[in-house]
Amino acid sequence: MTTTTDAPVLELRDVRKTYPGGVTALDGVDLTVRRGEVVVIVGPSGCGKSTLLRTVNGLEPLTGGAIALDGSQITGSGTRWETVRQRVGMVFQSYELFNHLTVLGNLTLAPVRVAGTPRAKAERRGLELLARVGLADKAGSYPRELSGGQRQRVAIVRALAMQPEVLLLDEITASLDPEMVREVLDVVVELADNGMTMLVVTHEMGFARAVADRVVLMDRGRVVEEAEPEEFFTNPRSDRARAFLQTFTYTRSTRRAGPDVSAEPAAEG
Amino acid sequence: MSPDVLLEHAPLFARAAVVTVRIAALGILGALTVGLVCAAVEHFRVPVGRQAVRAYVELARNTPLVVQLFFLYFALPKVGVVWSGEACAIIGLTFLGGGYMAEALRSGLDAVDASQVDGALSLGMSRGAALRHVVLPQGVAVAVPALTANVIFLVKETSVVSVVALPDLMYVAKDIIGSSYDTREALTLLVVAYLVILLPVALGARALEGRWRRAGLGS
Amino acid sequence: MSTTPGTTPDATGEVAAAPKRRTTLVAAIVVAALALAGVVTWLAFGRSQGAATGPRTVAQIQEAGKVRIGVFSDKAPFGSVDSSGAYVGYDIEYAERVAKDLGVTLELVPVEAAARVEYLTSGKVDIILANFTVTEERAEKVDFAKPYLKVSLGVVSPDGAPITDVAQLDGKDVLVVRGTTAETYLEAHHPEVKIQKYEQYTEVTNALLDGRGAAWVTDNTEALAWAKNNDGFSTTIASLGPQDSIAAAVQKGNADLLRWLDDELVTLGKENFFHAAYTKTLEPVYGTDVSADELVVEGGVVR
């Protein structure tokens, strides 16, 4: 059971993003995330969910609306995004680990260079984080030597090394082989249980259902439905939500009678 | 081929080798600096700068060093600019080499996924820090084979600086051939001298590439 | 860096080592290539030390119908190319007469000072008529005919800083063309001078004009000619070092051609050929500064 307070950590008001060519990715999005909450954003491809995530840490500048972090606006003209990003971490679909550094090097680069943490302390913290996800023995390895699931777990703890208040997770299992999805999502569930505020974009519905405090459905740049997970998945209110969930359900109208599986297998040569 | 003659002329070659190495080293340093600036301008698509760099790279890579040296040493004085032979050699190597280094470094930088910068930025790094700590190290690693080839090429190119009366290895070889007619010995010493200079460079580069192989960079 | 199924590295992260066989093959190819290069180089240089092409006798030249004579293309008034691309000069007059009297066509081959010996020893030319000063060292490598010009060294310096005594060159930069008697003389007698060597006459004169050296040391005949044509410079020392002579040279051991040339000189002497050549090519340059007899050698006998 996650603990949340009522204080909003993130407030998105009428967020808009239109590209110079005229394409509108975000068409007025309102969203509030409270401390300790896990908000999962789902939606069909092209609905703007990744773009929305990237506006929160400034990788996509807004063309309209505003975002506030902990009560203060972060999308004004004077924003120092470097400072904001130390409080809002992000994990990417393609991990974006630094290939020329070891795992430990990846974890300590930003704390040392950006936060000014002494190297010894940063390394200690890095090893603790690696131990938390069971990768302490990989500290000296290079990203290339790890499996996809291991790399993504390193990416997550790399973001955690900066001790962010909010974590943005952008389709972090989309590039993984199915058997590695589990190990990564286990980490996310553990983070949720420990009170990390997270904004998650995913298309793993089982995962969304398990970890979300709230599910948000987006379509064509707008929020279409917001609900608690159970409600969303079993009893969606909007047609769009229903249609969306339908894409994950498969039915066959007729089924062939299979071989009689109760009989012993025929002895064959 | 007489070992006595080889030994007799060896000290001259050693002294000339110092000249060759000095000119090559300074020229290569200049070339790397120019190359890095040009590569950055192209990589970041700086307007106007980009076109200027392109023009420079084409000019530098498509004119032989000899021609550039003649221009610097014999043509510039006609408009009042008189530089010493050594200065002309270093400037020529920088100009020529800069074009090659720019290409190598640009390819290296371009080979680094733009999304690596996203990763760096998301951790709170400035664009400058991202360039310095994430993009550049990886870009240079990718560029090392090409950079090494350029270094070796530039060292060999120094063999033409004798046209501006610089006492490098070729100059000394010609001296010995001209005065004592010990052609075989002189040319053997010449080849050996260049090998002595270039083999360590080649081996050092291979060691460097080996170091990065584990991280999967460069190949 | 996304993972594609089937390419994840194994747990140890080891890179598969290159097959040993392939490395050995590459090494073998490299060694073979080097050996081949070495053999070819050896043959090439071995040959040029001896005679790549043997000396051609007069009969052979006449049968071939063409004689190859090496000359300067940038040393007026001895061997240079005029604006229409034709060779002119004192040496050229001699070369043209030789071809005419041999009864063959003339092929003039431009040479650099430092390459004159090499062109003969490798058989690239039959005769060198490139203002070639007779020295003992050179006589060990080539055979000289009798002389046709007297020469010693001269020094050209700017009017603003004239060099009237060789001692003034101490510690200064002096320009010479590589492979000339000036180079040898300075290195032997004035080691305190800093010598800059250039390959060609055009380069050394440009360097002089650009102020890269205190003086240019060369044949006095050359010095006089150039200084006259260039304002701001004069031949400040007209005769440096010993009195030498200039003669045609042939490949060592080419007794037949040598004899023909020496006989030819006697013939030409009877008609005062070289005085006429002087009048045509050198007098316009030197004017009254020098008289023909000071320089010209007629009939191969120095007076």
UniProtKB/TrEMBL annotation, chain A:
Pfam families listed in its UniProt record: ABC_tran
Coiled-coil ranges (or none): none
InterPro entries, per the entry: AAA+_ATPase, ABC_ATPase_HisP-typ, ABC_transporter-like_ATP-bd, ABC_transporter-like_CS, MetN_ABC_transporter-like, P-loop_NTPase
Residue ranges of domain ABC transporter in the record: 10-245
UniProt keyword terms in alphabetical order: ATP-binding, Nucleotide-binding, Transport
UniProt GO molecular function: ATP binding
Keyword Nucleotide-binding belongs to the record: yes
UniProt cross-references to CDD domains, sorted A to Z: ABC_HisP_GlnQ (cd03262)
Record SMART domains: AAA
Family the entry assigns: Belongs to the ABC transporter superfamily.
The protein, known as: Amino acid ABC transporter ATP-binding protein
Organism of derivation: Flavimobilis rhizosphaerae
Lineage: Bacteria, Bacillati, Actinomycetota, Actinomycetes, Micrococcales
TrEMBL record, chain B:
Principal location class: membrane
Annotated compartments: Cell membrane
InterPro entries: AA_ABC_transptr_permease_3TM (IPR010065), ArtM/GltK/GlnP/TcyL/YhdX-like (IPR043429), MetI-like (IPR000515), MetI-like_sf (IPR035906)
Organism field: Flavimobilis rhizosphaerae
SUPFAM superfamilies: MetI-like
Nucleus is among the record's keywords: no
Keywords of the record: Amino-acid transport, Cell membrane, Membrane, Transmembrane, Transmembrane helix, Transport
Bilayer topology: Multi-pass membrane protein
Family indicated by similarity: Belongs to the binding-protein-dependent transport system permease family. HisMQ subfamily.
Residues annotated as signal peptide: none
Residues covered by the ABC transmembrane type-1 domain: 17-202
Pfam families in UniProt: BPD_transp_1
Keyword field contains Signal: no
Protein name according to UniProt: Amino acid ABC transporter permease
Membrane-crossing residue ranges in chain numbering: 12-38, 82-102, 134-155, 186-205
From TrEMBL, chain C:
SMART domains in UniProt: PBPb (SM00062)
Membrane-spanning parts: 25-45
Keywords: Membrane, Signal, Transmembrane, Transmembrane helix
Gene3D superfamilies: Periplasmic binding protein-like II
Database matches in CDD domains: PBP2_Cysteine (cd13694)
One Pfam assignment: SBP_bac_3
Domain of life: Bacteria
Every Solute-binding protein family 3/N-terminal domain range: 66-285
SUPFAM superfamilies cross-referenced by the UniProt entry: Periplasmic binding protein-like II
Record protein name field: Cysteine ABC transporter substrate-binding protein
Organism: Flavimobilis rhizosphaerae
